Amino acid sequence: xxxxxxxxxxxxxxxxxxxxxxxxxxxxxxxxxxxxxxxxxxxxxxxxxxxxxxxxxxxxxxxxxxxxxxxxxxxxxxxxxxxxxxxxxxxxxxxxxxxxxxxxxxxxxxxxxxxxxxxxxxxxxxxxxxxxxxxxxxxxxxxxxxxxxxxxxxxxxxxxxxxxxxxxxxxxxxxxxxxxxxxxxxxxxxxxxxxxxxxxxxxxxxxxxxxxxxxxxxxxxxxxxxxxxxxxxxxxxxxxxxxxxxxxxxxxxxxxxxxxxxxxxxxxxxxxxxxxxxxxxxxxxxxxxxxxxxxxxxxxxxxxxxxxxxxxxxxxxxxxxxxxxxxxxxxxxxxxxxxxxxxxxxxxxxxxxxxxxxxxxxxxxxxxxxxxxxxxxxxxxxxxxxxxxxxxxxxxxxxxxxxxxxxxxxxxxxxxxxxxxxxxxxxxxxxxxxxxxxxxxxxxxxxxxxxxxxxxxxxxxxxxxxxxxxxxxxxxxxxxxxxxxxxxxxxxxxxxxxxxxxxxxxxxxxxxxxxxxxxxxxxxxxxxxxxxxxxxxxxxxxxxxxxxxxxxxxxxxxxxxxxxxxxxxxxxxxxxxxxxxxxxxxxx
Length: 588
Ligand code: M6R
Known about the structure:
Blueprint: E1 8-13, H1 18-29, E2 36-42, E3 46-52, E4 67-73, E5 88-89, E6 95-101, H2 106-115, H3 128-137, H4 143-153, E7 158-164, E8 170-175, E9 180-183, E10 188-191, E11 203-206, E12 211-215, E13 219-223, E14 229-230, E15 235-236, H5 252-258, H6 260-268, H7 272-284, E16 287-292, H8 294-311, E17 316-319, E18 334-340, H9 346-357, E19 361-366, H10 372-376, E20 379-382, H11 395-411, H12 415-447, E21 452-457, H13 462-476, E22 479-484, E23 501-505, H14 511-522, E24 527-532, E25 541-544, H15 553-556, H16 558-570
Parallel strand pairs: 16-17, 16-18, 18-19, 19-20, 21-22, 21-23, 23-24, 24-25
Antiparallel strand pairs: 1-4, 1-10, 2-3, 2-4, 5-6, 6-7, 7-8, 8-12, 9-10, 9-11, 11-15, 12-13, 13-14
Helix pairs in contact: 2-3, 3-4, 6-11, 6-12, 7-11, 8-11, 8-13, 11-12, 12-16, 13-16
This protein binds 5-amino-5-deoxy-1-O-phosphono-D-mannitol (M6R).
């Protein structure tokens, strides 16, 4: 059976406490997947720990050591059990490998290995890797060369870390899945993401595709294809340790919702000259596509409204997974704006690859520095939101909205004014959090047993309804749907009966029409919740958000984010790790 992975990996070499450091790092990577986890420590021999379920506690015997690797898994196929958890071992149990990605030709490789007497204990594609390494070591190759020769046989996307009993080194490699190395004081790391080792060092080396990294008494990088050493730049990250800790907050979700005023401000601090240049590229293009997935796609839909309303430029929002139908219309006069928190979402990366082949210009809006997307782009705007650990996008969404608005304002020569409006939105966001938090908590108690929640909005509040619905369903598991205000009565109004909650986003531009739509559902018994600048008597509950002109879409999502958070708590769910989800979706 095929097993796909979207996981977190870490490797550490240092003077001691390897098990503890890897375990703590895995906990910071758990947002990438939490079906099972495991560690391989290279101490007297190779010690292996593998457990199904979320990361539990670390047995005392695994705290020490000076070298090891760890993994936290998100599986799409194949059982969540101890034998499918990583690390996966070679037949001689001397090589352990952790892996993120998919080996497309693993059946073929299994056949090859079986014909040489190898057997397999798991359903994973990963297990071929340690066995191929064992095979090549037997040919007399060094550990690094055996790994390299193995990588040359693999088709597909991967990031791996491998240890060989007694070797004193860790070998990592990437091809399409993220991997970054960290340089501490006599301590060396590799991981899927920087927060894994952030308490230890902020000096990092971002690996590119088809590169191997060797952790010994230093970090060395080599080409998978030629085997030659590659000199890499060491970069210093400006994220703080506090940003990857919960601090006084019960969950990352609440912490990140609360960080939004700061994140919005930071997103708006872009170099005006670069913005003008990028806005110019968009302005001159024959056709412009804003592309993303999930929440990032909702930000793209907001861009459609913002560009048309603010700058009079028509742009199109498209789901990355559905972009194929537009490929034919791309040329060197097209622009694709790729929007992503992680910069690693596979559907988006594939869109960008295809658009590049058509010579379209690629502009990316991204949060994670060193991720794949900026490296594939002609221009990149960093959102500067800091690490977002909760699986749900909250602060990255409002930061994306800030960047979209800023681009639209820059395009029509109103960049400075736009920046002031967004700053005002950041202030209003702070006020909205303060004011709506207690009301959202109270409302969650009332709504926690409901089956459905509907959200409606017109104009630029339509994408807010889409995003609000996604927040509610992914964290509380209550069915929620967002609609353009007038659409409910084209079918879904059949589901409205006494007590069904409907959230209506009231905007100054669409006040009359959305009030009519709200009245239509109220007449059928809906429990009506309003979000807007002006309170109205028709609502059973109302969240007031301060006015901030064209940027009102920023604070308006906050009451729903808070409601979603408290709904999860009422339903005794973990808001940071909703079931079946992972932070970065690196499989198709
Ligand atoms: O990292 P990206 O922004 O590319 O991720 C896109 C989606 O996977 C992401 O927004 C997802 O929908 C979140 N769970 C939403 O909260």
